[in-house]
Amino acid sequence: MLIALIFTLIFFLLYLFYLIIYWNWNKVSQPYYAPNQTLLIGHRGSPTKITENTICSFQKAIDQGTDGIEFDIRLSKDRQIVVFHDKDLKRLSSRQDKVESLSLAELQTIELKKEEGQKEEAYIPSLNELISLLAQVKVINIEIKSDSLFHGHKILNPLIEFLNTNHLDDKCIISSFNPLILMKLRLRRPKTIIGFLYFQKGLFHGWRNLVWILRVQPDNLHIHHSLLDHWIVSWARKKNMKINSYTINDKSDYKKRKIDAVFTDNIEYLK
Question: Residue 100: exposed, middle, or buried by beta-carbon count in 10 A (0-12, 13-18, 19+)?
């Protein structure tokens, strides 16, 4: 019995060693990357100029010459995909409601707070309202928001329908801090480009994220700029993953980093 247990443990450790060191998985083609060139992606649009995650903010980012735009999605009460970061409306309006407690029609009547000097009115858009904007950029990053490991999974059906209808696979990355959502998406739609958002909190976060990465099999690692010297970045490069970093707003930091893409609030400053 003891011998069998020892052999099982040895086999498991050898298999784990193989997965970590040698095993690689196929990556989906990403034609928007160019050698020795870092993509500049507007984080929630151009949020220092115009209210984040709004059509006007995305258009401003495009006008500033960004390569792509990043935005967040959630489900409304009536199962419509809306473009919004927070789980509730407190930060960006005078309302206290949760996004998922209101219908799309109700959400779109709420005026959002403006940035200093902003003239444009700001409202919550639906994902479908962004289609014409998406044609103007090289790459888009859609982040699925989730409030817990088992929350937010219902967004997958309408999101997959949206991706199938609009044929965005050559320019669209789907990311999330929720690895279970990414695993489901990978199984249901293997051709989707997936960005694994590195979750930094807790002890041994490097090993915890590594285990999830091996399960999700993403194409990219999306990681905070403060962790770009972490061992997991070197490991991800050896696995041929693209390294995209958030949120880099300092030009000197941007210039010294050799990464594939940056998410930034300060598009004109970094250009």
Answer: middle
* Radius of gyration for the alpha carbons in the chain, expressed in angstroms and rounded: 20
pTM over 0.85: yes
Q: Which H or E run contains 3? A: helix 2-21
Fold of domain 39-270: TIM Barrel (3.20.20)
Beta bridge partners of 142: 71, 174
The confidence score (pLDDT) of residue 203 equals 85
φ and ψ at residue 243, rounded to 5 degrees: -110, 115
CB 221 within 8 A of CB 241: yes
pLDDT at 202: 82
What band does 54 get if pLDDT is binned at 50, 70 and 90? very high
Indicate if the pLDDT at residue 238 is higher than 80.
yes
pLDDT classification of 266: cutoffs 50, 70, 90: very high
Are the C-beta atoms of residues 145 and 115 closer than 8 Å to each other? Answer: no
Q: Is pLDDT larger for residue 186 or for residue 255?
A: 186
Asked if residue 223 lies in contact with residue 210, where contact means CB atoms within 8 angstroms, the answer is no
End-to-end Cα, the chain, rounded Å: 64
**From residue 142, how far is each of 39, 85, 165, 196 by CA, in Å?**
16, 11, 16, 12
Say whether 83 sits in a helix, a strand or coil: strand
